[in-house]
Amino acid sequence: MTTRLAARATATFEPVGRSVASARAFVRDTLQGWGSTEITDDAVVLTSELVTNAVVHAGTSVRVSCLRTDAAVRVEVSDRYPERELPLDESEHAPSSPEREGGRGLMLCAALASRWGVEYTSTAKQVWFQLDVDEPLAGTRTAGPVLPVDDLPLAAESKVRVAVVQIDRGGSVSGWNDDAREMFGYDPEKVLGKPLGELAAWPHTPGTGTGLADALRHSRWEGSYGIRGSDGRVIPVYASHLRLRDSAGDPTTVCLLVRDRERAVLQTPNRPAAQDPAAPAQGEGGRAGADPFDAFIGSPAPDDLDGLLQRTVERARDILDGDAAYLLLATDDETELEVRASTGLPSARQRFARVPVETGTGRYGSARMPAVHEDLTADPMAVPLLAATGMRSAVTVPLKVEGRLTGSLGVAAESPGRYTNEEALRLQFAADRIALAVESARLGELERLRRGSLSFLVEASDLLAGTLDRDQTLALMAQMTVPTLAGWCAVYTLAEGADPELSYVLHEDEDRIDDLRALLARIAPPEPVLSPGARQWSAPADTAHAAALRTSFRSLSLGTAAETVPSLATAAAVGGETVVLPLVARNRVIGLLVLGKAADEHFRQEILELAEDMSRRAALALDNARLYSERTAISQSLQRSLLPPGLPTVDGVEVDVIYRAAGEGNEVGGDFYDLFPIRDGAYGFAIGDVCGTGPEAAAVTGLARHALRLLAREGFGGPAVLERLNSAILDEGSRSRFLTLLYGELWPQPDGSAVLKVVCAGHPLPLRLRPDGTVTPAAEPQPLLGVIEDLELYEERITLDPGDVLLCVTDGVTERREGTRMLGDEGLTDVLATCTGLTAGAVAARIMRAVERFAAEPASDDMAILAMRVPAQRNG
């Protein structure tokens, strides 16, 4: 039997990297069109290797020819570099080993092809391979030339039967012809009135609920499923469904069914694309009927997801002569589809608008199968994305990878009835070709988002944990979300029993912050709801658009169009999707985080989930800042209550005090001082240090200060006052703390001197500075308070002459450290010796300055300095 050429296709490709992908697509499309699907993968692999070799090593244009005969397919790859030798192993004159780069294509030819070879001419070098094909099965659709009758394959049966089944609006069988009875074994009276779903074995996609009834709601649909015959066996069928209206105007569906192996009887063939007049003729570097969807392959790069999707919708719209096109991708949890690219639709329908996947009212019911919608006015929610867009007809196809829905591609037109099953099949073919590349890019994008989300949350947690200041926490919350997550942000805080209060506003355009704050101030705040998750809030966008319309109308009436600019710009800046996230901490709503987009923009689901995670961390940080602020305020208030509200004026004696509390202000210190009148002309003074800090120390401090005043004013002398205070401290039991205390009484004298009686109970000794710079201790040490019961204390009398200074400090001054060095009593004495001639306030200030400069680190203990000076007498 002689070999006869049945078909030929040729294409020429430029010497660039993307030509390899285009060549693969050319061979795949050609062989699939010829029905040679069983050898398509091998042919594509071999073509890829040979074209790559030619592009890399020859650097000339490459011509690929596909030739089909009765029993084989031959693919020829020719370049314009006849002098180039094949990369062969020099010793074996055979293809090189797998470890070497050269000759790999020839190794594959030897392994996969039934025949292969190399031919040289004066102008070109050609590598070819041949793959044998089996005889096609009955019903196989081909794109080859018309064959003689004798060459047509035999049908499995002498008669091809077409079952005609009519379905009413409820999905029940209302018509059943003779071929249906012969194919499935049911008499009409057995099936009329029964739902077709009871007879159908519908191939469900795992994890979905899409059924035959959903398919029958489409205007047109073709596909394979099974019908259970009367003997219980499932008969695979190929069916074409057309939705019509009966004489009463009710919807009805006519189903044409054939055995699945005879699907060519019903299957809509691919319509050949129009030949570009400017393109080369077949055999001259082009190929007739080239699929325009070739543009999808290799351009843009697969990792450029947005570019790939946008190019896809533009080509889909052009090829099907549509007015609009769109592409949706599954969200991370694959429960919704979101718009990732569109053309010809209002901008509000573009980026990241979402629709649920599962079927039902208002849901995207046609997502899982190809569908043709002849008139969307009959069922506006068949494609919710096209509602109110002016589109009347649409064709939609799924993007699936390994049976899993990953997206949907649709083309729409403004006139009804524009599309048929033929366009649906062409669009599905294109979708199948790009589905894997899109899914790979989508998964890569999700992985980058996950990694970015983790980095974002780690950084956010570090920043929020680094402050306990409420205002700084609010600022961080806003600055972390803008512009990373949203175009603008507002934070409302919520005090117990009060309405939400607008606390912080931020916009990515700093010039819009004041306008945004003014806009939100006019709107009632969102309702605080404990339920987690983001909820939409339309008030900002609605108010901004309404204000822009009013301003525009007023400006046009007055002829001052320039006044419309701020309002219109504000409407554009906040006119997109706005969501509210509750700030929940310790099972209580403490605020609201509002995130917004610019006009006609939507949030991605992944971004909302990330914002929800961030809001939980921010809520806890904000509540911690609130608790810290409350604790600090309480501590500071308690600290103030333990110190005198002011110092009385003592005639003839200068008195000044400096007090520094250590720490961050959230703990009550144990140091205290006091100066108070006892009786006419006499004053009591004290400076003390309670062991430790916190509430227990504060209790002893309060007890000591108030007991000193009370006992002194009752007429008790210094030793008696301290002995009774010691007993009161010991009566506190386990709550008691030991206390060092310097207590004294002061009597200014008419001659300008001052008499002091002091008791130093375990406290750093007071120092006396004379006008000549001499510094001496002014008292003897005695036991501290709060340790033993039977204290026997005594007082010492001191006379301060004019010019003398008495300095009293707590141990935070003398124990100031820098590494192993400590200021100590000697260091304090040296500093005091330099203070001759200074007032009491100047002395206290110089001592404090010297203490602070002694070490670079902040003080770790409270410090109190009490300075008393008798002014020097003036001559004359």
Automatic annotation (TrEMBL):
Entries under Pfam families matching the protein: GAF, GAF_2, HATPase_c_2, PAS, SpoIIE
List GO molecular-function terms, semicolon-separated: phosphatase activity
Specify the protein name.
Answer: PAS domain-containing protein
The residue ranges of the PAS domain are 164-194
Q: Which organism is the protein's source? A: Streptomyces smaragdinus
The record's section on SUPFAM superfamilies has:
ATPase domain of HSP90 chaperone/DNA topoisomerase II/histidine kinase, GAF domain-like, PP2C-like, PYP-like sensor domain (PAS domain)
> Can you supply a Gene Ontology BP term from the record?
regulation of DNA-templated transcription
Query: Gene3D superfamilies of this UniProt entry?
Result: 3.30.450.40, Histidine kinase-like ATPase, C-terminal domain, PAS domain, PPM-type phosphatase domain
Low complexity compositional bias, start-end: 272-282
Q: Which UniProt keywords apply?
A: Hydrolase
In residue numbers, the region (Disordered) covers 83-103, 267-289
